[in-house]
Write the structure tokens for this entry.
Amino acid sequence: MITVGDYTFSLADPLFIAGLIVALILLLLVVLLVVTVRRAGKSGEMAQVLASQMGGLGSRVEMLSNGQQQLFGGLTSVTEAQAQQQAKTLQLMEQRLSQVTESLNVNLSSSAQRTAQSLGELQQRLLTIDKAQENITKLSGDVLSLQDILSNKQTRGAFGEIQLNDIVSKALPSDAYTFQHTLSNGKRADCLIHLPNPPGPIVIDSKFPLEAYEALRNAKTDWEANEAAKFMRTSVKAHIKAISEKYILDGETADGALMFLPSEAVYAELHANFPELVRDGFTARVWIVSPTTCMATLNTMRAILKDARMREQAGAIRTTLRLLHRDVELVVERVGKLNTHFGQARKDLEDINTAAERAGKRATRLDNFDFEEIEKEVAAPLPLAQDKS
């Protein structure tokens, strides 16, 4: 690039190259002229020739100057056209850049909204997970608390009693049972069901041989399994014996009692692997029940109580039916009297209707001046009895 004043020329421009060649030719001519002038002193003819050549050269230089000016004008036009084209190109590029920027902003805005929505949903899910984690933590604490409860004999007994109370209170009416009932021998039963004779009141006592069951479940060798089985037999037999001796009293309770196991797993273990313990319970008249079988047994007791109460109320039901029959007879008698009154009233209405018809006929005769018929009716005796009726 070559800058001359306010104009800038490129070496790749053909017009500029042509002008440069013309300038070089002029420079060469000037050099030749100088050489020629130096040699002018040799001869006058050469001077004249040189003068004529200089005149021609001046005219040519003038022509070259005019061409150079035209060349500069063309270069100026080309430069202005190029500047206008560059301005248009720049404007188009600015418009395109504005469109791209606007589209990019829209895309970024929608992406930001989607991202915010996704983050909101993620936050909700995280909150749900946190709540679930809290529930799991709480449940773990409850499980640990249940393990603490079951590890102590007294609290384990209270757990079984609470479960028994819940089942009994849901299956039977409130006046059909008593919790913590004290018998005549001073022993306190967990629950006494007031069944009618026979069979009579029956005791339900809660027992939970958890240590023996856990030892049986945790046994890893045959020796440990045998020892745990012995422990289970000893524990259950002791419970059966205690219930049979404490809660089966002649003349006071039924000829049997129920041992409530608050665990379906222990109940299933006894029936699956220790059937002799179940038979021992039958022999001692102690029936082992789980929460499920206890509910079924209590529903049977409920039916027995309902039947007994129906029998007890049979006399009252017969008395009520007799009174109801007497009330129906009184209603029938009063309906008959009312029917008699309605019949008399209907006859009175018929007599009134007959008298009205006679009065109407007489009024008609008077209106027609039919005095002969009137005289006949006056001469005839009046039906006093019929009128009276």
